[in-house]
Write a structure and sequence with these properties.
The protein is α+β, with helices and mostly antiparallel strands and 85 residues long. The protein has two helices and five strands, in the order E-H-H-E-E-E-E.
Amino acid sequence: MKIEFIQFDSDAEEEYYKSAKYYKDIDPRLSKDSYAEVEAVLQQIKKFPESGYTYLHKTRRVFLNRFPFAIIYRCVNKTIYFFCC
């Protein structure tokens, strides 16, 4: 399946920005590192949408390596919907 669109749930987007601010307050490098890791996972999901672990309600989940977060998403047609970060 070729992914053409990525859509973030508003709660997931807000949670992402809060975590970025949290890490920036600790050390700006952490914020950059977390951003880079999330971006890498998003690109992986875009390239391989079925790569995440099967999760609840027809969603999939991918854990980040360095940070205590998982990205939860669902693929519908050519769009990936992100629900949690």
